[in-house]
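User:
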Amino acid sequence: MGTETRLPAGPVRVAAGQMHCVPGDVDANLATIEALAQLAARDGVKLLVVPEMATTGYFIADRLDGLAEPEDGPTAIRLAAIAKAAGLYLTVGFVLADGGKIYDAQLLFGPEGRRLATYRKAHLFSAEREWFSAGDTPMVVETDIGRIGLTICYDLLFPEYVRRLVDLGADIILNSTNWITNDFQRDVWGWSGPTVQSLAATRALENGVWLAMASCVGPEWEFDSIGHSCVVAPSGRILASLGHSHGIAAADVVYHSDDLDRWKAVATYLADRRPELYR
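Assistant: Predicted structure:
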């Protein structure tokens, strides 16, 4: 687990990139990711996260064999170049082919263009179980801008899993997602942008951790991607959000401040846990 002494003394600008992913059109999606990275770089962003399966789109079950790639394949090489050109850490949702299996994955690249991590989604939703194999390794990656905990979409609905990343030392949780809805889910049950943003805020609050969630936006197959990408403070405060817009939601993450110390002195949730009651 990390210590505060390794964290940057000043602010780290973090952004969630929101985009419409075109199913099956890797070139178009890479162009959009590159544009987001360039926009983020101009805003001083050091860490950018983009949505789940951002390079391929989500509804590609009939094309998975042709679109899945290894972690060092041509699409990963292009993503590494995008990260290097923008000079930032880049986290991208990706369809991974590995060992004869296909995974819903995230690739994390450093600003020098080196791939730092490959995370495989641990919690598969509904029909995803027919398409993908599940990952089984919670992942926290140490960088010079803090320890980054990686999650994909449905992972965020499991508080024990996010708590595990915090126990492993995560300073910030990244979530690449494509929350989707339709008339039934939205009108009958209220599954909408404010709901998913509240989910992100709750995970940040209950763990006292920074969080950035990047979602898709726009129509895809019979659904609408919800959007509402955001950056959230450890108090659950939404620092930046996008609603249904395309672009980036950027905010400064500050690991050391009098205000944060004052908040943490009150919000002692982790220290006040009683695990013996939860078994």
